[in-house]
Batch of 2 targets.
Target 1
Amino acid sequence: MANSLLIVDDERDTSESLKMFLEMKGFTVRIAFSGQEGVAAVREAVPDLIMLDLQMPGGMDGWQTLKQMKQVASSVHVVIVTGSTPDRGLEQLAVQEGAIGIITKPISVDELVPKIHSFLQGSGP
Amino acid sequence: MERYVFNAHAAPILLTGVMMFASGVFVLLKRPAASVNRNFFLICLSVTIWLIPTGLGYLSIEPDLAQLWFKCDNFGVMFISVTVFHFVTSFLQLERRRAVRTGYLVAFLFGLVVVLTDWLVIDVRKFSWGYFPRWGYFSIVFFAIFFGYMAASFNSLWLEYRKVREPARKNQIKYLFLAFALAYTGSVDYLPTFGIPVYPFGFISIFLFLSVVALTIIRYRLMDITLAMTRGTIFMVVYALVLGAPLLVALPSQPQIERLLGTRWWVWLWIACAILATVAHYSNLYFQRLAENRLLAEQRRYQATLRRASEGMTRIRQLPRLLKLTVSILSKTVGLTYAAIYLIDMGTKRYALQASRGKDGQPAGPAIEADDPLIQYLNVHKNAVVLEELHLQHAADPGLREVELSLRHLGAALVIPSFIHDHLLGFVVMGAKRSGGIYTDDDLKVLMTLANQAALAIENARFYEAERERQAEMFHTAQLASLGKMAGGMSHQINNRFYAECIMAGTLKGIWKEMDLAGVPEPVKQLILKTMGDLQKIENDAVRGGDIAKTLLNFSKPGKAARITFQDILKLSMEAAQFRVKFGEIDYEPVVVDPLPSLDGNLNQLAEVFFNLMSNAYDAIKKKQEAIKEGSLKLLAGQTYKGKLAISVSSITRNGVTWLQAVVHDTGIGVEAESVPSMFIPFFTTKATAEKGTGLGLYVIKKIIENHGGEIEVNSTYGEGTTFTMYLPVAKEAA
């Protein structure tokens, strides 16, 4: 069965491109353009992995979204996607908040796919 | 029973004798180790033995007693020529030991003959000035020897004068020659011994000569004989005219004076002498000053210039300009053939040539080691070194020969040291004066003042230079920091844009790749392939742009120094590197020697250092693999290449301080020798533009290591690999 992914990012073009690419690579992909939409999508169906952008407009940033998603489905696997350079503090915070990892922007799609696979394996039952 | 009677003619002779002895002793005590001074004393001694008994002979009432004294006097005379010869040979540094020894032996034998027999001093004659000895024919043998040694002395001086090139030395020899020639007029005293009634004024010539030589040895470093001669002559003439002439007039008219002034006439004489002596003293001073002003006008002029220059020095803040100016002022105003300044290099502790002027006597080497004999000598004596003086002294102290060689090596006639807080900051090398003149005590005083002022000025300039560099550095750091902050603030925006480009370009590229292009017309197919290539380029550029932003961000990265271990650093950097470096494809050897002392540092920054080094090493290995594949790099037959990255950390002790030494070694492509020195320069990169790399990596690494109080070195050979060695200080308590 294809792994299901949820992309939460306010950048529509990017998200749609990414969806197209990842579907080509055999994933089932949904996209959400805000925190609220993301939480709603989780409520609808819990994906295998969520790629959550940290910086989003609309009063709900990545951290708040993460918190609410965890409330909806405590075992949900979330990877933080961020444009800032990762350091220990950010990693620790991500783990504390219940994320399983960080992906730093920018990242080439060729690197992204194996990364997603490794997160899926690490998060598998 | 009265044996002596007062005779005015004896007074100047006795007086000269006493002064001669005193000046001989004085010169000897000034520098007992120097053979020139010792031999000068011997001349004085023999002349004293000649003069004092002669005076006593004048005073004697009985001819027999007078003859005894004259025998004694001639005992001294026997030695005069050989002591002169001895002095000249030591002054010219000639090896004439046998001649000197023979001379002393012969003089002694003659002395015995003179004292014990009547062969030389047959008897005495009564002249208008008193008794004087009569010499027999035996004295002809003595004259032969006397003239022989004197001729040898003059000849040696003459030969040396023609051989020597240095103008100062030439001058010296010339004047010494003239001084001896002058002294030789003292031979007039031989005339009365053969019955010719010429007044024996030999003591005057001798006095003149000796005061000249004594003055030169003591005050003028046996150099500026012109000045000393002038001084001696003025002294003689003034005293002779003011004091001597009235006495000479008064003496023959003794009975008339006695009649005029009564039996206490000699009281008046003493009073007159006292007044005349005072007058003579002040006139002497006056004429001395007059002569000096004329003779030293040139010297005074440049000394004043130098003083003014030294006052202005501290206002110049650019070191190279200051040094150049100092050298040019010195050589112009003093009239030097050569001048140069050497300053200590704080790093190597060597004294390096900083500025020079003049063609002659260029130094052979650009730097003087701190253990050079000259440097050691300057450190001990803390005073100017005059080549001429060393030359005269080193017979007594062989160590000085080394110092002299150093001086000659530098082309120096004079070296003036500069001290700051007792440390030898540097020194000024001065060649010979163009005039051929010498460096007088006054010169040295002015030059030492100048050197001290220069030291202060140099210290000032160095401080300003360091301060300027520090400010530039601060400005640079501040620039980078603000750039970092800005980049930090914009990083989301920047990275989101790059991310969007990556994803879109990558997706489009991926879609085209999956597309079945069968049946598509060839031009369209070509266009699609071109588009795919361009999309790949866009993706690469976007990733690289993100890397640049990240590197710049390291300057604004938060995080304070904390107690950390190397395991922490390597773990964190591995985490970051694993996505870029495929450790499985190469031999990776991390070696950490446990237990290592911990260190105080910024974990993120240090992890960044190792992440970058690992990533660079990986790139280098890949590049070498490519080069082997392309055939531009050949392996030996039967060899395969996998590539190795080895990291080892250990603690070492350097100069009693414990450091953590981290070595990152790879067997990658390496760097061309000419590029190695530029590796740490910002935006220098050996990677092609299309490849990843920002050109900031190693610069940032160096800055991070230095901010931690550490050092980084690189060693690289093209085709062989690269080794980075870092030293980081251990945590304070851990040390």
Target 2
Amino acid sequence: MTVSPLQGITHACFGLSYLLALGLELARLARPSKGLRIGSLIAGAAGLFAHTTFIAYHRPTPAEPYGSFLYLAWVLALFYFCGSIQKDARNAWAVFVLPVVIALVGLSLLLTRETETPVDVPAWASGDRFWGPVHGILILAASIGVSIGFLASLMYLVQARRIKNRVNPSRGTRLLNLESLERMNRHAVNWSFPLLTAGLLVGTLLLRTESAENLLSVKVLSTAGLWVVFLVLLYLRYATSVPARRLAALSIIAFGLLLIALIASHPFIAGGGSG
Amino acid sequence: MNLRAIGCNVSSAPVGLREKLAFDEAKTRFALAELTARYGVEAAILGTCNRVELYLARPETGAPVHAPLVAEFLAELHGVGSESIQPHLYEHADAEAVRHLFRVAGGLDSVVLGEDQIAAQVKTAFEAAQKFEAAGSLLNALFPAALRASKRIRTETGLAAGQVSVASAAIAYLREIFETFTDKTVLVIGAGEMAQLTLTHLKELEPAGILVTNRTAEKAESLAAESGGRAVPWDQLDDALAKADIVLSTTGAPEFIVPYRRFKEKVRPKRGRRKMVVFDMAVPRDFDPRIDDADRVSIFNVDDLNRVRDQQLAERRTHVGAAEAIVAAEVSKFVQDWNRRKDGPVIGKLTDEVDRIRETVLEPLLAKLNGKLTDADKAYIEGAFRLFQSRLLHGPIAALRDSGGEPHGVTLREALMKLFGLKG
């Protein structure tokens, strides 16, 4: 029986490809060049191909932190690549998105090692092969929105600072306009909130028989905190007229809570299928 | 090459004279027809607000047209004394004229270094020359080459990068903030020349609406009518500010017309989170700077915009060397290509003549040796004759090609024609 060459693809393959793409993008900021752009796109495309192949071959479950980060990184890598190949793509797009993709790939790799040892499956989760993955997928979909909202917010704050400091528009790092970034953030939050709410409801149903100790786990608390932050975000956006930069700051906090929630050990591992 | 670039520009002639020498389409048509008929020249006229230049090409053997003749022609055409024109005219000849046009087209000779309108104006001048049948072989090669050089300068150097006017700097900031403009309302406060000028640029963004307000209602109505906008009474300024996304303020008021408190109490509550960009071009300023919260409201004053313009001009100056190098390379290429093109027929005739001579020697020889030679022998002899011919002609042809652009090139060409009995 022959071993598929796809089996040889590891985190390092796509992680390093993304890193190379980022390096070329940074070099392009310092010295704009068509060659660097093409090189960066090729490296990015190679990374995305390896990443896709890895996911297709290993089919990690989104119910595990390892899988969640891997899927999240893949969606953001797709987001980076589509944004970068657009004709009017701004330089800074990749410079903001790729570090997040690389960090998520790194976290995924880190959590692979941690979860290599068998995990005790909670009694309530055994035999539940449907609601666990549903919860995982809903949270993952919401996480994509939170991550996009985070990136848009980060770029918004940088762009707002550039304008405040009256930086010459044709100099330095170029970014999308404030209106587009605000719209991107608004859509991300609007889409994420119902998904997050549904994911939390499913999670709550699965946890209803759990002990108080599990209910107060970092995972549960940070996810609940994330939901509260989203609620506040929606309230501030639609019921008040607070400045957009405060909403952007809150979106960044939401992303921090998301990372904590995903890193915290997941209670539905055994119930997860391939997603 | 027998080319002259004769004209005046902002450095050589006062605006009063340039105004008198301006060309509209009818005058251009008439002038081109007259120039070709009277002087037997190819002609193109480049007329912009900063320059009036005539590009005149004559056959190699003809006497070149000089500035005094052009001064007389312009004087007659525009009804101005030639003595008031001639001292302001400059004249560039041949390769220098080519270089001048390439520099002009590339924005190196513009008042605003690297400005991009000039390339379109050069193109228009060329199209007029073609349309009115005043362009011949030289100008038909020269102007496209100038436009190519201009394109290279704009794409390969930073000479045309960035914003070098206050209005374009304002628009660049707007593009950093807004995604679209077709849903935006522009409010103009004040109706002076500055408002008019900047509004012309803002209109290019195709905003949804333009509101104009001024203490003198008639002035507001007049500017509104000109710009396709709507005049708003001065006492409704707060409502107009609540509606506006882009504000252009240019009044001569001695104090803030929009103080912080007034904005905070009467305008901000009606605006929600909508962004507003204010270009406060007035000195003293019209808007209290505290209104700028770096999020919902951004106020740019005249210093902010001037700074961008000055930075960009300084940046452009650093690209002059690279742009001049492109001009030099393109001029050299053009002159060489032109001379090659001109030498082509001479080389063709020379080759034909020596071919003919070879045939006249070779044919009787082969006829005499008929029956004694194999086909391979015949081919060998023919090849030897061809080799002899090509080695013989290599020197003169190479010398002629190498003389491209040099003064003795014409003499060499004439000498070859005489020596080999070629007819022109």
